[in-house]
Structure formats: structure tokens, C-alpha cells
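Before relying on records like the one below, remember that each one covers exactly one chain. Contacts with other chains, cofactors or solvent are not represented anywhere in the record.
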Amino acid sequence: MNAHEIDYHIYGEEMQYVEIELDPQEAVVAEAGTFMMMDQDIKMYTIFGDGSNQDTSVLGKVFSAGKRLLTGESLFMTAFLNIGQDKKKVSFASPYPGKIVPIDLSEKGGKFICQKDAFLCAAKGVSVGIEFSKRLGRGFFGGEGFIMQKLEGDGMAFVHAGGTMAKKTLAPGEVLKVDTGCIVGFSHTVDYDIEFIGGIRNSVFGGEGLFFATLRGPGTVYVQSLPFSRLASRVWAAAPKGGGKDKGEGSILGGIGDLLDGDNRF
């Protein structure tokens, strides 16, 4: 194996975390902000790119790290190395309610495509890059689902699915239509494209966006019920606006708004 061989255990239900057991000199890489806790004798250090060492030249490292900027991620990742003589453990937490999905890349043909913010952590040696689209429609209309990450190698990787996770196994030629934000990831054998919903009423009044993703088998698809973008938009819509005063609080218009919302404080 090129990637480090790691053992793991996932704890929890709605707010999960993954505990990874490292043998001496084994390491795991993770996105910034996912670290939870670790044993003594585990050294934490920052690396440029993903630490896969596929191209050791300076230009190769810069290009590898630069691709991460296109997905909105940092140029750097954090590595956790066991420098002790015994097995040690390090844990990483999910960023919001959902499920942590373990992906064995050796069982996925060495490649897995995932949503840009789904990646949590992986064994050192796994390459974390971007999946370039060869179709024009994805680039212009993909929205949340356009920029996809690709995980390559033969080690373990962990991705996060918001809410409840559905795993769908598609037969050759079988098609699944999914909201672009609800895609967690899929096998590299799955053909992925963007399709226009069609119809003026659907487009203007449907409330579901103008496009959805079509995923054609064979392969495995992971779908999430609560994309972070959807969660964030609901929180933003419910947050008070204008310095804590929402809908003109304290005014006649504000009172009418409260009545219409069912927020009756009388």
C-alpha cells in the first residue's frame, strides 16, 4: 500500500466523531477545524497540499496545493504522526449533525468523487484534489455540485454527510436524479451531469432551483438529507436583521409581520 494503513472506530449518532488508531510512524491528514483530541506522542504539523507525495518537485507541490484553492479550501492541511513506540489514537469530529462515512479507496478502484466540503480526513498518502468537469453544462449550471473533490489512492478516507445519509447502488444505465447540494459523493464509475428542470412554473415557483444532477450507474452514490448550504440558508433566514430588530420590531408593520408569522406575543 502507498497510503498508511489505519484502524478506526466511529462513535455517536447525530454528532459523530471518528477515532483513528495509528501504529508507530503512521499518520493521518485532515482538514483544518476537524481535530477533536489526541493521545500523547502524536505530533501535529502543517503540510503544504495533502501530503500524498505524488510529485516531490516544488512546482508539483505548488500545483497540487493550488488546486485546493479552487474548492475553497486552504493551501495547507494538518498531519498527525505517531512518534511514539506504541499505538496511539487521534479523533476528528463532524462539523454539523450527520454521519461520517468511511471510504476504502482500495475497494473503489482507487478513486472516489465527493462534494467539495464533505472531506473530513484520510490516511497519509491519499491524494486530495479536484475533479475537473469535461462538460460545459456542469461548469455554468452546477451550482453547489459543480466543484467536486477527488480522493485517490489505496487507503482509508472519511467524508461527512449532513442529516440522514442514503446509500444507493446503481446498476449499469440506471439513473438517479439528485439536488446538487444533496450529493455527498459517488464511485468514479458513475457518470455525472447537470440537467435543466424545465417548465416556467417549476423554474420560477418550484423553490428547488433550476437544475439537478443526474447520476448514471454503475456505481455507488451517497446522498445527504441536510446539505450545509441548506442549513446555513435556513439559519440566516431566521436570524434577526438590522441590529437585532427583525421585520421592523416595535413598529406597526413589525406587529403585522408577527401576526402573519404566528408569532403572537399578546
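The first strand starts at residue 7 and ends at 11.
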